[in-house]
Amino acid sequence: MSRLSRRRPPGGADAAPTPASLTVLWTVGYVVAFFLGNYMVSLGDDAWRWLLASSCVPAVAVVLLRIGVPESPRWLLAQGRVEQARAVVTRLGGDVEAFASLVRTTQAAGGAAKARYRDLFGRNHWRHTAFGVVFYNAQVVPYFAIYTFLPLVLLKMGVGEEDTTSDGMLNVFLLAGSLAGLWFVAKASRRSLTIWSFVVLIASLAPIAIWPDAPTAVLFPLFLVFTFTMSAAVNLDQVYPAELFPTDLRSSGVGLLNGLSRVGSAIGTFLLPLSLDHLGFSPTMLVLTVVLVAGLAASVVWAPETKNMALH
Predict the structure, then answer these.
(1) Global confidence as pTM
(2) 3-state class of 32 per DSSP?
(3) Which of 16, 93, 166, 237 has its CA 20 to 30 A from that of 154?
(4) Intra-chain end-to-end CA distance of the chain, in Å
(5) Could you tell me the sign of the dihedral formed by the alpha carbons of 73, 187, 291, 265, in that order?
């Protein structure tokens, strides 16, 4: 049986807006943190203590929300705990047909040969693995590098450190792009959304890199377009990787892509201030543009179309 088929069962790849909404909520937190941080720095010499302490609030909320989260019904079935799995499916709104479909899928997976981690690099999956690694890193390296040191980047474009209006506009564009990304993920094909988002990102960042001395009135709108598009495109990060691999390799594949993307983002974040100091603003932005071009090339050559396909 093919790993992907055109059949669209409930909860298949067409249900992507649900995981994509996780990225939107992350962006909401990012924007809230910006405005809250700007307020809290005015609290005096101990403002940094309050900023650190404020991180405890969402951490405690997450711990409380995780209490009572049910176990995966697929895992429960694999352990032979059928009634517990049925109760979880019912609790989550599934009907008898949904549970029967889950049982059949789990039984089929149980009868198949167990996948091995090295299969990610085998003949059947290496292209999807390679695409996922390049695609994910081509997004997060510029994202974390630029927005971690956003004040420095804005300063190079002529936006002063005290220009809270521009900072506020950027955060609004981040949030608007993230919300728009939900619509694009639901309506556009995975392949076209990936390719065209890279095209727009390159088209908006390349002029900044090539003409860094342009008027701020030119550079800043380009950066707003870059911000909006990047925020919309990263909605795919919670959707596309999971659709690249079959069920028995999905956790390993997604884990690999996430792990390597964090290595890439850490390297990009570490190197950006060094690059600004030693190479300058224009070469640094050119390097990040090349990273985006690599993402575009990998998408054109390797990106599969997984929208509206059932995962097996």
Answers:
(1) 0.76
(2) helix
(3) 237
(4) 9
(5) negative
Which tokens hold the place of 151? Answer: 């004040």
Q: Measured between alpha carbons, how far is 232 from 227 in angstroms, rounded to an integer?
A: 9
Q: Are 206 and 221 in contact (CB under 8 A)?
A: no
* Rounded distance between C-alpha atoms, residue 13 and residue 239, angstroms: 8
Other CB atoms closer than 10 Å to residue 231's CB: what's the count?
27
Listed in sequence order, the DSSP H helices in 149-189 are 150-156, 164-187
Q: b or e along 175-214 (b: 16 or more beta carbons within 10 Å of the residue's beta carbon)?
A: bbbbbbbbebbeeeebbebbebbbebbbebbbbbbeebee
Helix (H, G, I), strand (E, B) or coil at 304: coil
Give CA–CA dist 131/124, Å, rounded: 13
Pick the closest to residue 167 from 178, 179, 177, 155 (CA basis). Answer: 155
HSE of 292, CA atoms in CB hemisphere, 13 A:
26
Token pair 């990060």 is found at: 237
pLDDT digits (tens, 9 = 90+) for 161-174: 666 677 778 888 88
By residue count, the chain amounts to 312
Cα–Cα distance for residue pair 94/84, rounded to 1 Å: 14
Phi (first) and psi of residue 311, to 5 degrees: -90, 135
- pLDDT, tens digit only, all 312 positions of the chain: 334 433 333 344 444 555 667 777 777 777 777 778 777 777 778 888 888 888 888 889 888 988 888 888 877 887 788 888 888 888 878 877 878 887 877 776 665 556 788 889 998 899 999 999 999 999 999 998 998 888 888 888 887 666 667 777 888 888 899 889 888 888 889 999 999 999 999 999 999 999 988 998 899 999 999 999 999 998 888 888 888 988 778 889 999 999 999 998 898 888 888 898 888 999 999 999 999 999 999 999 999 998 776 655
Answer for the pair 200, 225: CB distance below 8 angstroms, yes or no. yes
